[in-house]
């Protein structure tokens, strides 16, 4: 067999990542926005952050997660749009449906990103490259969106390949070129190296991936702990993590940035309660429970803290709402003013199947049955139709 065949056989992991997804959907759906800087995130006076911006806006230095105020300073003529999450989710499902035509081994990473392992699809659909090309062409033709495709023999390099060639990218990284390609890249290109780790590596004199490639095995793990082993392997193009299909969301969250800073503890408590109702309803729809409750607050000076509590897995509004409020009371003495509060639920697991044939529920039974009935009523009559008394007091300000 020739080399091409060997390489094609091993490079069977595809990473697909839509380009400037939210902004592209907006530009697609409103042709007058095409070619213009579009910033999705909300009203620039709303104090939220940029969720996604079009490539036209990026030319002005606008980036994701930047405060909208700053984005407006950099690009005053940009069009600012609210986050139309449901519409993006709908489009996202259409994109994933195209990918799913080529392999059942698909790991969804986020609303616009997934890994595919096509090693068992080759006889039906041809080489990984032709599968990657086909997906790219279909997404463009059927959905009128651009998607970047990276292909390699492991997840890290497939993702790197799609990122290196953005936008509208298509790139393969083969085993025999990985070492040299990685060498000059900054250490931040390694999976898991954020700003904090970058600084740590910087102090050790490690600036480029090549610096890590040249280290003897074990050296980096001695210096920075177990992550050091992972980075050393990634630097050498080693990544044995499999593509894990059907991976569930690991967390679910809701947060809001206030129009004006607040110290009103009752208002904050009621917001957490409302978030708990909203998130628990989502959990129950998916037959999931949460094992951690995290409250995040951001002060007027942008400093943020988050505090978590482990609970026995639950999707009860009441239990999770009360846990969140307890965390807030411990963490926030009522000063300084807050600009943001958020609630997120983590360690999500599937709800254990109900036992068959159990007619009697113990008196101390949890409130999940009540919650389910309330979900039903909300489904039929709208989300404001019913709620627990203490969740009704306040109107939640618009998110983003
Ligand atoms: Mg993307």
Element string (H = helix, E = strand): HEHEEHHEHEEHHEHEHHHHHEHEEHEEH
The total of beta strands comes to 13
CATH class of the largest domain: Alpha Beta
What's the tally of helices? Answer: 16
In one word, what is the shape?
Answer: globular
Regions with little confidence, pLDDT below 50 for 5+ residues: 1-9, 353-366, 389-400
Q: In which range does the helix fraction lie?
A: 40-55%
Question: What does this 3D model show about the protein?
Answer:
The protein has helices at about 5-10, 20-30, 55-60, 70-75, 85-100, 120-125, 130-145, 155-165, 175-180, 195-205, 210-215, 220-225, 225-235, 265-285, 315-330, 370-380, and strands spanning about 15-20, 40, 50-55, 80, 105-110, 115, 145-150, 170, 250-260, 290-300, 305-315, 340-345, 350. The chain has about 400 residues and is α+β, with helices and mostly antiparallel strands. It has a five-stranded mixed β-sheet with strand order 5-6-1-7-8. Strands 9, 10, 11, 12 and 13 form a five-stranded antiparallel β-sheet that branches. The chain contains 16 helices and 13 strands. The longest helix is centred in the last third of the chain and has 21 residues, at about 265-285. It has three domains: about 1-175, 2-Layer Sandwich (Alpha-Beta Plaits); about 185-235, 5' to 3' exonuclease, C-terminal subdomain (DNA polymerase, domain 1), CATH 1.10.150.20; about 250-390, Dna Ligase, domain 1, CATH 3.30.1490.100. The termini are far apart. Bound molecules: magnesium ion. The site of magnesium ion has 5 residues, from β1.
């Amino acid at each position: 067999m020739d080399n091409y065949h060997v390489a094609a056989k091993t490079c069977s992991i595809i990473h697909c990542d839509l380009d400037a997804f939210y902004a592209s959907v907006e530009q697609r759906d409103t042709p007058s926005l095409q070619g213009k800087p579009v910033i999705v995130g909300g009203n620039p006076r709303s104090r939220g952050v940029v969720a996604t911006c079009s490539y036209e806006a990026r030319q002005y230095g606008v980036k994701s997660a930047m405060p909208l105020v700053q984005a407006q300073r950099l690009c005053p003529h940009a069009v600012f749009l609210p986050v139309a999450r449901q519409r993006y989710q709908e489009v996202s499902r259409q994109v994933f449906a195209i990918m799913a035509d080529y392999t059942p081994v698909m790991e969804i990473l986020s609303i616009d990103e997934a890994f595919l392992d096509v090693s068992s699809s080759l006889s039906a659909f041809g080489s990984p490259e032709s599968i990657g090309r086909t997906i790219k062409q279909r997404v463009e033709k059927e959905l009128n969106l651009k998607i970047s495709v990276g292909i390699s023999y492991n997840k890290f390099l497939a993702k790197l390949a799609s990122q290196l060639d953005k936008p509208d990218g298509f790139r393969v990284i083969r085993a025999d070129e990985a070492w040299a390609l990685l060498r000059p890249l900054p250490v931040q290109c390694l999976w898991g190296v954020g700003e904090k780790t970058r600084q740590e590596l910087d102090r050790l004199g490690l600036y480029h991936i090549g610096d890590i490639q040249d280290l003897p095995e074990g050296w980096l793990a001695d210096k920075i702990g177990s992550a050091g082993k992972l980075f050393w392997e990634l630097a050498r193009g080693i990544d044995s993590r499999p593509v894990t299909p059907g991976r569930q969301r690991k967390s679910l969250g809701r947060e809001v940035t206030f129009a004006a800073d607040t110290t009103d503890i009752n208002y904050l408590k009621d917001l957490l309660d409302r978030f708990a109702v909203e998130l628990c309803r989502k959990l129950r729809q998916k037959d999931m429970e949460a094992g951690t409750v995290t409250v995040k607050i951001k002060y007027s000076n942008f400093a943020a803290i988050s505090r978590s509590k482990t609970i026995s897995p639950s999707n009860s509004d009441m239990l999770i709402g009360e846990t969140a409020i307890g965390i807030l009371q411990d963490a926030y003495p009522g000063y300084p003013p807050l600009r943001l509060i958020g609630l997120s639920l983590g360690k999500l697991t599937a709800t254990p199947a109900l036992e068959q044939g159990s007619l009697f529920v113990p008196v101390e039974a949890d409130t999940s049955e009540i919650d389910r009935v309330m979900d039903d009523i909300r489904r039929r009559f709208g989300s404001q139709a019913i709620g627990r008394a203490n969740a009704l007091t306040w109107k939640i300000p618009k998110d983003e």
